[in-house]
Structure to design on (358 residues):
């Protein structure tokens, strides 16, 4: 009955992997599911929770609201912590992402004199530094401008060739002129808080609410309490149908809103989303019924609590992302390697014609 869920134990953690005890403590008395293997990937599912209290006040924050505060609020994870202190990403683990991105840049510069390269959610600026080094090697550095966007201030000691925009992309991006070049969102969208709904024991989809940093089943999504619930219901009907008791669905809409901003921000060139993801065939098959929301702290995967102590993440519905802009794009799953964790997808969305001179 209960499903399994792939966890990123070997990428956003450095050693220990998912903490069963911690997860079990938080998820309470819900049904526990054995860790299983999907392909070569160790997976640890979140236990489903058939006996959660359902009589909760409906004015509690939704899971998305609590996650938002936990990530970006005054005591939020990203307000107080540097990601590299808590987890590795494919950018910091090796060259795979830099190689992938520089292939796009090289191809772009065959047709354009200049390229503006922007890393959205640039963290320490590692990817931009790798691109700067590559452009030196290729004698292309005069033809590219590099710019990082992040919530965090410009990292101390960052290469002076890299410009930096500090702030929440959902605000800062709109104030920037559209670029000719390439905008990269690597492991950004999975960090964006999203609503979660879950089927109760009768199979009725209910909104997950948060209290004291824990999750509770709230009102049914088809109740008239908030208009947004209906929007979530319709997103789920299209992309992640609720068909089984206890299954969970992570609503992709907030990620799609940011992706629309990113795609609109590229006048000519490419918008690249590289992230942990899934597609509808997997969701319908039940591969992700336990949901994917998890926390990372001190190099370990931990149960997701909205107390700001851990980086919360949930995989991206990549096909819904692809369909969310008129430009669409090409979606492919990236092959796993020593520096590319499993479960990563690339959505490459082309804007205008990259062969027209800029
Ligand atoms: C998981 S880290 C990935 C960092 C980098 N792209 C990499 O792959 O190593 C996500 C980064 O995005 C930033 N971030 C998350 N949400 C953001 C937002 N709404 N606006 C700007 N930056 C954001 C965080 O501060 C963090 O540095």
């Amino acid at each position: 009955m209960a499903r399994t869920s792939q966890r990123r134990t070997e990428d956003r953690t450095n050693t220990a992997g998912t903490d069963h005890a911690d997860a079990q403590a938080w998820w309470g008395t819900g049904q526990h599911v054995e860790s299983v293997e999907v392909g070569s990937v160790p997976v640890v599912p979140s236990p489903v929770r058939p006996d959660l209290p359902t009589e909760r006040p409906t004015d509690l924050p939704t899971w998305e609201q609590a996650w938002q505060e936990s990530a970006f609020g005054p005591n939020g994870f990203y307000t107080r912590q540097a990601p590299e202190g808590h987890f590795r990403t494919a950018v910091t683990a090796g060259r795979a992402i830099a190689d992938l991105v520089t292939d796009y840049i090289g191809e772009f510069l065959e047709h354009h004199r200049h390229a503006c390269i922007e890393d959205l959610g640039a963290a320490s600026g590692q990817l931009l530094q790798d691109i700067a080094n590559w452009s030196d090697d290729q004698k292309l550095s005069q033809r590219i401008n590099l710019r990082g966007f992040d919530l965090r201030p410009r990292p101390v000691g960052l290469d002076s060739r890299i410009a930096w925009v500090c702030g929440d992309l959902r605000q800062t991006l709109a104030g920037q002129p559209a670029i000719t070049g390439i905008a990269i969102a690597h492991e950004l969208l999975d960090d964006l808080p999203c609503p979660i709904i879950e089927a109760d024991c009768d199979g009725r989809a209910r909104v997950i609410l948060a209290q004291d940093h824990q999750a509770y089943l709230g009102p049914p999504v088809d109740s008239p309490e908030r208009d947004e619930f209906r929007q979530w219901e319709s997103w789920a009907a299209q992309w992640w149908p609720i068909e089984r008791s206890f299954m969970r669905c992570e609503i992709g809409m907030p990620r799609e809103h940011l992706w629309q901003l990113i795609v609109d921000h590229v006048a000519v060139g490419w918008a690249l989303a590289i992230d942990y993801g899934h597609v509808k065939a997997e969701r319908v098959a039940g591969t992700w019924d336990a949901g994917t929301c998890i926390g990372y702290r001190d190099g370990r995967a931990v149960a997701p609590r909205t107390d700001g102590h851990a980086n919360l993440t949930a995989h991206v519905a990549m096909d819904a992302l692809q369909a969310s802009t008129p430009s669409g794009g090409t979606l492919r799953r990236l092959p796993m390697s020593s520096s590319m964790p499993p479960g990563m997808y690339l959505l490459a969305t082309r804007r205008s014609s990259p062969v027209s001179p800029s």
